[in-house]
Amino acid sequence: MSKVNELKERLFDVNALNAATAVLDWDHQCYMPDGGNAARAEHGSRLSRMAHEMFVSEETQRTLSEAAKEANGDSEEAAFVRVVQRQMAISTKLPAEFVARKVKRSTEAHEIWVKARKENNFAHFAPALAEMMDLAREEAEYLGYIDHPYDALTDQYEEGATKKSWEAMFDSVRQPLVDLVREINESPNQPDNSFLTGKWEQEDQRKFTEMLVQAIGFDFERGRQDIAAHPFCTNFSVGDVRLTTRYEDYLGSAIFGSLHEAGHGMYEQGSPMEWDRTALAGGVSLGVHESQSRLWENIVGRSRPFWQHFLPQLQGTFPALSNVNLDHFYRGINKVEPTFIRVEADEVTYNLHIMVRFELECALVSGELKVADLPEAWNEKYNSYLGITPTSDSVGCLQDVHWSAALIGYFPTYSKGNLLSYQIWNALQKDIPNTDELMAKGHFKPILDWLIDKIYRHGSRYQPEVLMEMATGERMNPEHYLKGIRAKYAGVYSL
Amino acid sequence: MSKVNELKERLFDVNALNAATAVLDWDHQCYMPDGGNAARAEHGSRLSRMAHEMFVSEETQRTLSEAAKEANGDSEEAAFVRVVQRQMAISTKLPAEFVARKVKRSTEAHEIWVKARKENNFAHFAPALAEMMDLAREEAEYLGYIDHPYDALTDQYEEGATKKSWEAMFDSVRQPLVDLVREINESPNQPDNSFLTGKWEQEDQRKFTEMLVQAIGFDFERGRQDIAAHPFCTNFSVGDVRLTTRYEDYLGSAIFGSLHEAGHGMYEQGSPMEWDRTALAGGVSLGVHESQSRLWENIVGRSRPFWQHFLPQLQGTFPALSNVNLDHFYRGINKVEPTFIRVEADEVTYNLHIMVRFELECALVSGELKVADLPEAWNEKYNSYLGITPTSDSVGCLQDVHWSAALIGYFPTYSKGNLLSYQIWNALQKDIPNTDELMAKGHFKPILDWLIDKIYRHGSRYQPEVLMEMATGERMNPEHYLKGIRAKYAGVYSL
Questions:
Q1: Which of A140, A176, A289, A384 could be cross-linked to A283 through a Cys-Cys bond (beta carbons 3.0 to 4.6 Å apart)?
Q2: DSSP, res B405
Q3: Is CATH 1.10.1370.30 correct for A120-495?
Q4: Across the interface, do B33 and A238 touch by the CB < 8 Å criterion?
């Protein structure tokens, strides 16, 4: 057996443990009764520890070194070895005891956060949040960094990213976005989206969203959709991808939530089957992943031609919408409005929500901001970027799951995804100029096929920036996003 | 740390792997899309191998020996050590290579069986079945036995059971059952159960069965119910017990299937929380487990007072049943009829189905019966015990999953469960003479509390026969069952 294959075989065991952990998480969020909490936390943390120990074992490290000598050039094997080496460099720096403790503490913090948010009680969550920040600092010390502990944390989610690189990204869009939001707010042509709020049958929402994501190309032979309080996408293999969505009074939650998760899901389903259970399968980074969820949710799913095709079906399922014409509908689903909740934000204000979080988590990690002062700092930033002040912590600094789950340095990847989505769409339109026509006919296959060819089928083989250059001819360039939303919202608001 | 605690700590990792495997199986049967099959089989077999390796590792064995010296008398610790020793004695006798091969081959055999049953093609399954029997013989040789290879196999499912002990059990009920079935068949007072077949809304079936199992005491804070093609009960911890049921044209499938699985489920939920994730938690043997599923399904769930309470609610949910009166309903759900399919059998003929399987699997294991001759032998036994001849192998010797899953020696535990259920109920009635009155009021707590006190809270602490003596004052005694069904069916059929 070649050393690369020996490495693969060893890592198949690690993959089995990680896939099992993912199934436990999915079940936890979709089905598990409350009584399962304590044991599930134990099981999850033990499996994570075992996977970590097995991954960083001397035997695996030795096999990896040997495989590295064997794999050369830009072969598939070499890419596989490079991805594993990167994971190994991170993992060997983290003590097994720390990994298990992080899983355990964050699972507990999550439960505390759920209660705190429900009861709008920041003080209840504060000690757990402080502990999460301690863990983040401890983790950064293990991982090492040059400029800022945040660099060590965020690099795990987006290879090569640093506090500085994120700042540069946000600097390039901050003012144009704040200006655009002001212009939009001052426009006399405000769309109405009240028609999207009502009492919609859960079963109708399920059927419609499943029809929708299947129509754009999500394969239900190799995946399914369930309900979760906080929608997410996970997968246990290339052939088993799980979407989640939620059914609320605001019909957009289900529709755009499903399209968003399906974007993630189709990216995962697009990996070559022969890479299944290896480090090469699956999306290359959180930023590129988010570019796909946002592309399908916003650029495709909030376009006029998309609804030219689907509005009649939507009205068939929900007769209360019969009197909403296409223009009214299109403008309604693209209403820009500064609101408190990130996950409900439109695509113009969305990045402002992320900036708030990015700036605050940098300050929390460095200790410049004390946990006790978070609610005030949060509200101030909302006031300054979005012109609104949250009416409670539940719709303020308690709204997101991330910090309670020890995910620090994760938020900026959402913004990167937004920016990349327009860049990728522009490149796609050079090869497929008639996207509007195709979408209006409900013909999404050429679009999906282009994305599979340029992005999905490459899995994690190329580094994110390399992949973007291959797919779009350039590294991340925020201009595409700024021009794209400028053009779109000039239309929606007659600017 | 004491050696017993050190042993517990080591086994918590094994427990995490086994719990994860159980979640993977549950998801496989309830939700997984077909595309997940290949990777799920890999993940499951790798986790099983890891659990086995960790369990039989030198370190675990050494810790177990040391713990055995420490734990003494009839303490909880000593019981824990005894249960682990028994598992260890079995596991260390089986080579890891054999365990992996058995999992792999039986997974393949299962797929072949699914196809063979669907296509009524015994010849397609025969080579796989022959291989399962070879594996069974090989396993028996590893495990060791005095009289018959079957002894080694069946002991794994029911501690202390042997071919001879099962024969003695069946000898004591065979003739009385055959006679009772004949008498019942000849009775002019045949009940009608046609009212249970119709088109019933799935959602109504879900609501009604969930109400029912909650009413008898299944705790939905620590469990849930899902749909599976072949209903089962599994659990991932004492606080997380999963029932499954199915919704069919025959309403009894859902109702009695749910009650049956809830019996298993309440037994699991009744283990002390402080034993969670240890070898002491959970039902002590398959036979005792089945006694609980059958007690709740048949003795409680097919009793007249039970339906005196629930029939009005059933009629409220399913108005098509409005005209069925209590007597008609009670007799209908207790109709005795020799049929081909074990899982649909009534409680009188059920044990005859098991005898057929027991006798045939003993002969297959010993080689007295050749696989090629199984269909004929099967049909002959059905004719002799039940007076009917299967019209095809799909409803004959291909109907059960067990042999394809390498579960040889498992069937007799079902009969033991049936027999014990009446024995336990008789003991319960000595302490609670007014069970009929309680059930007619929908008051199941005293019944459940008695079962928790006498059986459930003891988990696996005592050997099955010891537990039965403690709970009922005697070892297994088939007379209770024979008297019980005689009395019940004399009433139903006016014998």
A1: A289
A2: G
A3: yes
A4: no
Would the CB atoms of B34 and A221 count as touching at under 8 Å?
yes
Amino acid at site A131:
E
DSSP structure string for B176-230: HHHHHHHHHHH-S-----GGGBS---HHHHHHHHHHHHHHHT--GGGEEEEE-SS
A219 interaction partners in chain B (CB closer than 8 Å): 35
Q: Is A323 helix (H, G, I), strand (E, B) or coil?
A: coil
Model confidence over B104-143: pLDDT tens digits? 888 889 889 999 999 999 999 999 999 999 999 999 999 9
- Examine the pLDDT at B265 and tell me if it is beyond 90: yes
ipTM for the predicted complex comes to: 0.94
Match 């990015």 to its residue by tokens. A358
Taking the CA of residue A110 and the nearest CA in chain B, the distance in Å comes to: 19
Residue type, B318: F
Determine, for residues A237 and B32 on separate chains, whether the beta-carbon distance falls below 8 Å. no
Q: Where are the domains of chain B?
A: 3-93, 121-495
From A367's Cα to the closest Cα of chain B, the distance in A is 37
Query: In degrees rounded to 5, what are phi and psi of residue A386?
Result: -115, -10
In the sheet that B233-237 helps form, which strands lie side by side, from edge to edge?
B223-227, B240-245, B233-237
CB-based contacts of A77: which residues, under 8 Å, 6+ apart? A4, A67, A70, A71
Shortest CA gap A463–chain B (Å): 26
Biggest CA pair distance of chain B: 70
Nearest Cβ partner for A27 among B16, B23, B34: B23
Name the fold adopted by B121-495: Neurolysin; domain 3 (1.10.1370)
> What local confidence, expressed as pLDDT, does residue A344 receive?
84
Minimum-distance CB partner of B33 among A20, A240, A277: A240
Tally Cβ neighbours within 10 Å of residue A221: 11
d(Cα B377, Cα B368) in Å, to the nearest integer? 12
Residues in B closer than 8 angstroms to A221, CB to CB, are 33-35
CB atoms within 10 A of CB B322: 11
Q: How far is residue A98's CA from residue A58's CA, in Å, rounded to a whole number?
A: 19
Kindly report the average pLDDT of chain B as a whole number.
96
Which chain B residue lies closest to A34 (C-alpha atoms)?
A: B221
Across the interface, which of A19, A33, A219 has its CB nearest the CB of B220?
A33
